[in-house]
Amino acid sequence: MTLQDLDALIVKQHVLVVGDVMIDAYLHGTVSRISPEAPVPIVDLQYREENLGGAANVALNIKAMGATPILCTAVGNDLNGKLFFRILKHHRLSSEGCIAFPDRTTTIKSRIMSNTTQMLRIDNEQIMPLSTAAEQELLRQVDVILHKYDIAAIIFQDYDKGVLTPTLIAQITQWANALDIPICVDPKKQNFSNYRNVALFKPNLKEFLHGIGHHEGGLQRPVLFEQMAQFAGLHTIDTMLVTMSDEGVALLTNNRCYHFKAHQRHIADVSGAGDTVISIATLCMTAGLPPKTMAQIANLAGGLVCEYAGVVPIDKKTLYKEISTHNILK
């Protein structure tokens, strides 16, 4: 398959993204003095920016590759919720699957930055599962979207904020399996073992070790592979991709495990890298690439976004150039 063939397949895809969203805010300034009130630096604010985070960043990555994301989520009927919808509109992302509820708070993470150094982060959020009524309303919207569009894949993007409840996960999985739509998962701790019958499961190494109850440091690679195979078998997972930061990624497919090293990068910020990896892996999978090729391209993409400060989606031209440079599509 050539890059042109891959791109032609990707741009035809509609991907449903379900999960927790947030706003990643950055307050940029300079520090030249210490406060007389307390031994803390004074930041002279220069400008502020707000970016989409969580499942909304996954949608941005899907869009950046030329495919069509449909985002389904719950936010608060608050000022930050209104800001979230304005940012969606700015990026020309559909909000048809996004519902504002009066009993929820829209998550916003505000980072105080001096030059490129993060000095402080303030999280404004309320972590709680959807109410039964909200859960059913969101499920109704998912059902409408599944019958309205030709969905190539569903991504569960879990940040443990409460949108992805066990009931919601089970119902959407049942619908997807009936419609032969592959499910791809980027899990967190709370629902780690609630995902079953999925095509792709992508935890990072820390999440995976916690999910299997291993709390004593890392694992030797053969033991890690053994644990991946055991977990995948128990949960009926077709392919597992474990991201390991500067050690690359581990892939389990067809009961065989592989390791792909990370490419040397100048790391500026790892925020949002997992969003990029699940996005690119999903698009490669639904385009029909072999799992090993999918893993290598996703590994490249995750490293590329770490070269930029803040949460940013993948740049398609840069990714395609890297794929060619490393001769991944043979």
Can you give a write-up of this model?
The chain is α/β, with parallel strands linked by helices and about 325 residues long. About 35% of the residues lie in helices and about 30% in strands. The protein has 10 helices and 13 strands. It has helices at about 5-10, 55-65, 80-90, 130-150, 165-180, 205-210, 220-235, 275-285, 290-305, 315-325, and strands at about 15-20, 20-35, 40-55, 70-75, 95-100, 110-115, 115-125, 150-155, 185, 200, 235-245, 250-255, 255-260. The strands form 2 sheets. A 9-stranded mixed β-sheet has the order 5-4-1-8-9-10-11-12-13, sandwiched between helices. It has a 4-stranded mixed β-sheet with strand order 3-2-6-7. α5 (about 165-180) links the parallel β8 and β9. α2 (about 55-65) crosses α8, α8 (about 275-285) runs antiparallel to α9 and α9 packs across α10. The radius of gyration is 20 Å and the shape is globular. The model has no long low-confidence stretch (mean pLDDT about 90).
Task: Determine the N-to-C terminus distance.
Answer: 7 Å
Work out the helix count: 10
Strand line-up in the sheet with most strands? 5-4-1-8-9-10-11-12-13
Large-scale geometry: globular
Please give the structural blueprint.
Elements: H1 3-10, E1 14-19, E2 21-34, E3 41-54, H2 55-64, E4 68-76, H3 79-90, E5 97-101, E6 108-114, E7 117-124, H4 132-148, E8 151-157, H5 166-179, E9 183-186, E10 198-201, H6 205-211, H7 221-235, E11 237-243, E12 249-253, E13 256-260, H8 273-286, H9 291-305, H10 316-325
Parallel strand pairs: 1-4, 1-8, 2-6, 4-5, 8-9, 9-10, 10-11
Antiparallel strand pairs: 2-3, 6-7, 11-12, 12-13
